[in-house]
Amino acid sequence: MFKNTFEYPTKQKKTARVVAFTLAAAAVLLIAFLFYNSNPIPSEQSESELVNQEITTERGQRTTVRLSDGTRIHLNAESKLVVPQDYMQNDRIVRLHGEAFFEVTSNKDKPFVVQTDRSITRVLGTKFNVTAYPDQKEVQVVVDEGRVVLGSEKDVQAPEVQLTRSQRGTINGNGEIIASHVSDVGRYLDWSRGKLTFQDAPLEDVEKRLERWYDIEVIFDKGISTENRRLTGSFKDISMTNVLNSIALSLELNYKEEGRKITFMVR
Q1: Per the count of CB atoms within 10 A, which of 34, 70, 79, 122 is most buried?
Q2: CA–CA distances in Å: residue 144 to residues 15, 138, 222
Q3: Of 98, 102, 174, nearest in space to 133 by CA
Q4: SS3 of 132, please?
Q5: Degrees (nearest 5) of the Cα angle 124, 126, 131?
Q6: By the 8 A CB rule, do 239 and 196 touch?
Q7: Are 182 and 167 in contact (CB under 8 A)?
Q8: Residue 19: what are its φ and ψ, rounded to 5°?
Q9: Which stretch of DSSP H or E encloses residue 151?
Q10: Which one, of 186, 226, 222, 184, lies nearest residue 205 by Cα?
Q11: Which residues 6+ apart lie within 8 Å of 89 measured at CB?
C-alpha cells in the first residue's frame, strides 16, 4: 500500500523559514542601498557643476574648449578661462586671464560676455580674439566676424566702443579705448592655428611670445640695441632650433642655449 510521506511543517520549521526569508530580504535591501550610494542618480546640481570649471594652460601649452551652448574657445599658452556654474542659466559670462580666440554660438536672448581684469566684451554670435595678459600694458580685442561691444572696467564712465570685422579695440593703462582698422586679421589669430607669427614686433614682444610658446626663458643681452630691431616672420611645424636660428639671422644676433635658457647676444 502507498504510504503518505507528506508532513505538515512543524512550528520550528516555520520559524526557520521566516528567519531565512527575513535575512534574504535584508541582504537584498543592503545590496540595493550600497548600489544606490555608489551610483547616485544624476541631479540638476551635478550636471551644472560639469560646466563650473577652470581651464588653465601652462607655457608651451594650448587647448580648445567647447562649452555647453556649442561655443568654441581656443586658449593660448599661460592663460586661464573660468566658466561659472550658472553659465547658460541666466546669461553667458566667462572670465579670461591671458589670450583666447572665441567662436561664439549665436543666442539673441543671452549675449556672450568675456570679462578680464580691465575689460568687458559683449557679443551675440561672432569670432574674435582677446589678449589680456596681466604683464601687458594693454588689452586688445580683434574681430574676425560679426560685431562686439568693448568696454573698460577700470573707468566705469568710459564709453563703450562697437567693433566690427577687421577692427581692433585697444584699452590702454588709463582705461581709454582706441578703435582701429587692421588689414590682416589672420596674423592676430595665427596662434590658434598652430602658427607663431611676428609682425614688426619689438624685442620685448618677441621675448614674451617665445617664452610662452616654447616654455623657455629668453634673455636679450643688455648690449643689444633695440631701437631698430623688430621681427617679422611666421613659423609653423618648424623645430625650436630652426626658429631660433631664423630669428638670430633676421635680427643679426647670435644666441646660446643652456637647458631651457636662451640668451641672444651681439655678433
Answers
A1: 79
A2: 81, 19, 38
A3: 98
A4: strand
A5: 105
A6: no
A7: yes
A8: -65, -45
A9: strand 147-151
A10: 226
A11: 48
Long-range contacts of 133-139 (CB under 8 A, 24+ apart): 133/78, 133/79, 133/97, 133/98, 133/99, 133/208, 134/97, 135/208, 136/208, 137/172, 137/173, 138/170, 138/171, 138/172, 138/173, 139/170, 139/171
CA dihedral 101, 105, 111, 112 (to 10 degrees): -30
Q: pLDDT 10s per residue in the chain (267 long)?
A: 333 333 334 444 444 444 444 444 444 433 333 333 333 333 333 333 444 689 999 999 999 999 999 999 999 999 999 999 889 888 899 999 999 999 999 998 999 999 999 999 999 889 999 999 999 989 999 999 999 999 987 555 667 899 999 999 999 988 889 999 999 999 999 999 999 999 999 999 999 999 999 999 999 998 898 878 999 999 999 999 999 999 999 999 999 999 999 999 998
Q: How many CB atoms lie within 10 A of CB 57?
A: 19
DSSP state for residue 87 in the 8-state scheme: B
Cα atoms in the Cβ-side hemisphere of radius 13 Å centred on 188: 24
CB-count burial class (<10 Å; 0-12, 13-18, 19+) for 195: middle
Distance, CA of 240 to CA of 244 (rounded, Å): 6
CA separation for the pair 102, 144 (Å, rounded): 10
